[in-house]
Amino acid sequence: MSDLTAQGSVKPKPAARKGAASPAERWRRAADVSARTVAAIALGYVTASLATAVLARLLPGPVEEATIAATTFSFVIYVSVVIWAFADRHAWRVWAGLITACAVLTGALLWSLSVEPRL
Fold first, then answer.
1. Which residue(s) pair with 10 in the sheet?
2. How far, in Å, CA of 38 to CA of 45, rounded?
3. With a cut of 50, which residues of the chain have pLDDT below it?
4. 80 close to 51: Cβ distance less than 8 angstroms
5. By the 8 A CB rule, do 74 and 48 touch?
6. What are the Cα distances from residue 25, in Å, to 18, 19, 86, 97, 103?
7. Which of 29, 110, 111, 112 is the most buried (most CB within 10 A)?
8. Which residues 6+ apart lie within 8 Å of 88 measured at CB?
9. CA distances (Å), 79 to each of 4, 44, 45, in order?
10. What letter does residue 14 receive in the DSSP assignment?
11. Residue 118: half-sphere exposure toward Cβ, Cα within 13 Å
C-alpha cells in the first residue's frame, strides 16, 4: 500500500495515542464507574426513600399534604445524589457520604416512630 495520495503528496501517518491506558488502568476505571453507578442507583434510592419517610413524618400539616411534599422533594434528592456520585473525585467519598446519610436518616425515622407512632 502506498503512502502517496492521488495528488502525489505523502499521507500523514496517524498519531500515536498519547497516554493510552494499560489494561490494569482500564479495569480500575471500569470498577470506579461501576462503584459510582451502584452508589447512585442503589444508595441514591435508599437515601431518597428514607428522606421521604422522615420528611413525611416531620413536615407540618395534614398527613396527605406532608406525604405529597416529601415525595416531590425526593426527586430532587435522588437527582442530586446521582449528580454527586459522578461529580466527586473519589468513589469512596460518595459511598461514605451516602452510608452516613442513610444511617442518620434511619435514626431520625426510628426516633420519629418512637415519639409518634403514626404511619
1. 4
2. 10
3. none
4. no
5. yes
6. 14, 11, 18, 26, 33
7. 112
8. 94
9. 54, 8, 10
10. P
11. 8
- This prediction has a pTM of 0.76
Give the Cα-Cα-Cα angle 11, 13, 17 (nearest 5 degrees). 155
Q: How many CA atoms lie within 13 A of 67 on its CB side?
A: 5
Looking at residue 116, its pLDDT comes to 81
Q: 10 by DSSP, 3-state: which?
A: strand
Query: CB of 83 within 8 A of CB of 48?
Result: no
Angle at 98 between CA 97 and CA 100, to 5 degrees: 65
**Element at 37 (helix H, strand E):** helix 23-38
The full length of the chain comes to 119
The pLDDT assigned to 23 comes to: 85
Burial of residue 73 (CB within 10 Å: 0-12, 13-18, 19+) is: middle
